[in-house]
Specification:
Number of strands: 7
Number of domains: 1
Radius of gyration: 17 Å
Largest sheet: 7 strands, mixed
Shape: globular
Order of helices and strands: HEHEEHHEHHEHEEHH
Helix content: 25-40%
Strand content: 15-25%
Length: 247
């Protein structure tokens, strides 16, 4: 194993140990989301990806779309990171990556493919430095979602310097050169993984990416009365119920 592979493997393997200390929370209320918008601002500002803003928040129209799920990842009760997962399907094709890279993804949309689109992946600057496992545990949600929604493709829009990480860890392949999107000052590239073809290989290498059906239901079945309850079984072929138990 090369030194680069060892660098990736060590925190990924430690992620198994940290998983018991992690709580994935679906952020649905305005108060929940406000906390996430402020975390995004701190994280983006810390890495120089945005200019300062008066309201100290980062949000966009996709946050309130019925095919988007916003998660907070809590480490021993403290908000450590967040990610938004949008699901592109024949009924609801629009998602951040389709919007930003339509020239690459429209053929997939036209074929009726289901795509899991993770965006707004951010981590608390202080906790990220103390826990290098955080990216692995946060991005685990992408594979949980791919399983739950029977995805054809798992997408990722990442900085050019992060492409090799996604390829080695998740088998993502680059699809585009960098371009500016999501209101950030640093350009991002589009990547994708053929989930059905890659899942067993990735799961064999990193078993902690696996999930039970119970966990998937707990994470992705929305609470009764949530704004996205419109995504019923008749509207989406991959939808389940409209209730998400919350801790």
């Amino acid at each position: 194993m090369s030194s680069a592979q060892q660098t990736i493997a060590k925190p990924a393997e430690r992620g198994v140990e940290l998983l018991d200390r992690i709580d994935y929370r679906l952020m649905e209320t305005p108060a929940d989301k406000d906390v996430i918008y402020r975390l995004r601002y701190r994280a983006y500002l810390n890495e120089g990806a945005i200019e300062p803003k008066r309201d100290h928040k980062i949000t966009d129209r996709f946050d309130d779309m019925p095919n988007s799920w916003i998660f907070g990842v809590y480490l021993e009760g403290a908000l450590a990171s967040s990610i938004r997962l949008s699901i592109s399907s024949p009924e609801y094709p629009l998602c951040p990556s389709v919007d930003a890279f339509r020239d690459y993804l429209q053929p997939e949309v036209d074929q009726g493919k289901v795509m899991v689109d993770p965006t707004r992946f951010v981590a608390d600057p202080e906790l990220a430095g103390r826990f290098p496992e955080l990216p692995y545990l946060t991005l685990r949600l992408c594979f949980v979602a791919c399983n739950f929604f029977n995805a054809d493709l798992g997408l990722a829009i990442v900085r050019a310097e992060h492409r090799s990480f996604y390829t080695r860890l998740f088998n993502h392949q680059p699809l585009s050169p960098p371009r500016l999107c999501l209101g950030l000052t640093k350009p991002l590239c589009l990547m994708a993984v053929d989930f059905p073809a890659s899942r067993e290989k990735v799961f064999a290498r990193y078993p902690y990416l696996r999930s039970s059906y119970f966990e998937r239901r707990m994470l992705f079945e929305r609470r009764a009365g949530a704004a996205a309850s419109a995504l019923t079984a008749s509207a989406l072929p991959f939808a389940r119920a409209s209730i998400v138990p919350r801790s």
